[in-house]
């Protein structure tokens, strides 16, 4: 898998959403990447940098803490280059993502949570510990690896600018590691400081407060489970200076709007993509879009990765019941 086949994903106008919000709404469809997610971008950059700088030797093992998509990107690229992969995922990871990782050849370890390096039971702590105690293993560490931001600064941002012919007025994306919104946001702000860079996270996540006053809550509480986004710590790959505002949404409303959007358009959205749609619905009045705005929504992956979490009931209803003869 090379840089030429990762990125340059299409931007498609969504007529349904454009009509609903009376503006021009486009979707950046990252599921056209080989691993069907935006995480192929930082996976490639992190692996290339590690190999070029001698952080890993031929035949070694790339290690990552992932909600699934970055892990899959690393696994696919590493395998092509002759390396192994060990991916630490939390127990909340979707069945589909775990199945994809196993099919791709990753060694998987399931952890209690993804609460950061301070938690002994987290994916991040256990991934770091594993890499530190194994010969020729390298922890790519997407939460603190500068290549995460760089991948989107060099790729996603320029693509958005070119594909909208410099007319983009708003970029809205879910925030997990922070790499996408930070890298793309930096690039777009350098081209036009008036462009609004808006993030979306679950209720209870800490990045909204951190963006507002650069502090964390006195007590961190669990946040709504929206796979791929939301944190109870501030990742090093989150650049608050590149982001204008972060909106919060709840998990149940996000699931509901994913199903509604499928019924309206026939498209399966990923969990964090649905969170962006939920954000639009909840905050449309505050966003105050103009008729000639060019709003780009970032859809980092495909809904087929979340059938068990978002669409199971709908698909079950389509299957004829089995009657005992």
Automatic annotation (TrEMBL):
Pfam families to which the protein is assigned, alphabetical: PALP
Keywords, ordered alphabetically: Pyridoxal phosphate
Tryptophan synthase beta chain-like PALP domain: residues covered: 5-301
SUPFAM superfamilies membership: Tryptophan synthase beta subunit-like PLP-dependent enzymes
Keyword flag Lipid biosynthesis: no
Cofactor: pyridoxal 5'-phosphate
Database matches in PANTHER family: CYSTATHIONINE BETA-SYNTHASE
Protein name stated in the entry: PLP-dependent cysteine synthase family protein
Record organism: Sphingobacterium suaedae
């Amino acid at each position: 898998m090379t840089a030429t086949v990762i990125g340059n994903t299409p931007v498609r106008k969504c007529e349904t959403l454009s009509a609903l919000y009376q503006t021009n709404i486009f979707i950046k469809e990252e599921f056209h990447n080989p691993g069907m997610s935006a995480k192929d971008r930082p996976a490639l950059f992190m692996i290339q940098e590690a190999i070029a700088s001698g952080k890993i030797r031929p035949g070694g093992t790339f290690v990552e803490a992932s909600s699934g998509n970055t892990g899959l990107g690393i696994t696919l690229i590493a395998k092509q280059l002759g390396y192994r992969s060990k991916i630490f995922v939390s127990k909340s990871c979707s069945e589909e993502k775990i199945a994809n990782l196993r099919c791709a050849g990753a060694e998987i370890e399931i952890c209690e949570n993804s609460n950061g390096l301070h938690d002994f039971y987290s994916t991040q702590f256990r991934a770091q510990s594993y890499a530190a105690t194994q010969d020729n293993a390298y922890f790519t560490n997407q939460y603190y690896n500068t290549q995460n931001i760089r991948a989107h600064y060099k790729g996603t941002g320029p693509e958005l600018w070119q594909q909208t012919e410099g007319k983009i007025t708003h970029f809205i994306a879910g925030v997990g590691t922070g790499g996408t919104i930070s890298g793309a946001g930096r690039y777009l702000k350098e081209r036009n400081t008036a462009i609004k860079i808006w993030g979306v996270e679950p209720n209870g996540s800490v990045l909204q407060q951190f963006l507002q006053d650069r502090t964390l809550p006195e007590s961190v509480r669990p946040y709504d489970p929206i796979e791929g986004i939301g944190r109870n710590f501030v990742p090093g790959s989150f650049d608050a200076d590149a982001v204008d505002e972060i909106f919060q949404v709840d998990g149940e409303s996000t699931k509901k709007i994913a199903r509604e959007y499928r019924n309206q358009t026939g498209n399966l959205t990923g969990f964090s993509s649905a969170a962006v749609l939920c954000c639009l619905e909840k905050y449309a009045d505050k966003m105050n879009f103009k008729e000639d705005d060019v709003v780009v929504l970032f859809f980092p992956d495909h809904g087929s990765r979340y059938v068990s979490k978002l669409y199971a009931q709908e698909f079950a209803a389509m299957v004829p019941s089995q009657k005992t003869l």
